[in-house]
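Exercise 7. Predict the structure of DUF3142 domain-containing protein from Novosphingobium album.
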Amino acid sequence: MVTRRALLAGLLGTAALAACRRRQPAARATRVDPRDHAAFFLWAGVRAPDWLGAARTVYLLAGEVPHRDPPRFVPLRAVPRVRGPQVWLTVRVERLDWPEAVTQTVLQALARWEMAGNRLVGLQVDFDAATRGLAGYAAFLARLRARLPQRWRLSITGLLDWSAGGDPAALARLAGVVDEIVVQTYQGRRTIPGYEAYLRGLRTLPIPFRVALVEGGAWREPPGLAAQPNFRGYVVFLLPPR
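Solution. The predicted structure, encoded as tokens:
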């Protein structure tokens, strides 16, 4: 039989334990160390560190389609010869009204990178699509996917607020077009405050996704992120020295 004194002692012990747990601080954010990761963004003008050859995946900025007229692809990097990591050819895009010449130039660049011996995964489009403009972006990507040979995959970067304010129907249409979304959690050299709340919205995203971190930025992994079925890990944006 449990005595009243023993029961009271047990209740007090449970309350003390709960209070102790409440007083324990949450895990602190740490600075992103690229050496703790296996996938990286390398933009034009950023020198590849010596250890990058041991990476698993590298996204290399090949060129851009700027907003100025006429629309054209502007190369920003010579054809690389990467030994070891898988490579994505990334194009920074500021406009979606591509004429045929732009599409052909991008496809030719992909072919040259592959012929140079790179383990080419496919094409990544880096475009800051407004959350309310996702439907138009999805239509552009569907046209691009139709032109892309099946052996190459299609990746896009994504903004944090897509998860909170994006049209669910437009996001669902992306699921049949792109192979992954790399969600950016930074602006410039800093991590965007409040990223944890935005990332919770990715639980319903029907597309494989990675989370992009900035080198040296503050980061604390949100609870449950690693357990999400479509989460594929991190990509670190490498910075030029100051």
